[in-house]
Amino acid sequence: MAQQEQRIGRYALLLALSEENDPIVMDQKNVKSCVGKVGTMDSQKIVAAIETAAKSNGLINGNVYREVHALYHAILEAIQGVTRGHLQLSGILRTVGLRFAVVRGAPYRNKEEGDWIAVALYGTIGAPIKGSEHESAGLGINHI
Question: Which family does the UniProt entry place this protein in (predicted)?
């Protein structure tokens, strides 16, 4: 069972849901995080934006395949939440405007369980016509 203070998914969701200047006060020990934004009609650009942010903020080592692979699966799981199970955007004329958060930490008391990574997405999805979008969110968590 994940420790109360190390719920990396909850922390990622709070970061993604927060506004730019909202203080997120969490007692997170040995946790790394970053936030960013992406707007696109291409799901590949969502993956690229999150992967770039995670690498440049030191959340994953881009030279270690298992770290990149774990992040990739967490991203895809989060995108499926936003898109209701379909990874396609441009092919069906949908666009997203998302705030994302990536959190890396050890959510279990047993240190042998190692680090996990959580990706949270929150924003809008809809037709590429201003005012035709609605809110959506997604969360993906994977072990590293």
Answer: Belongs to the HutP family.
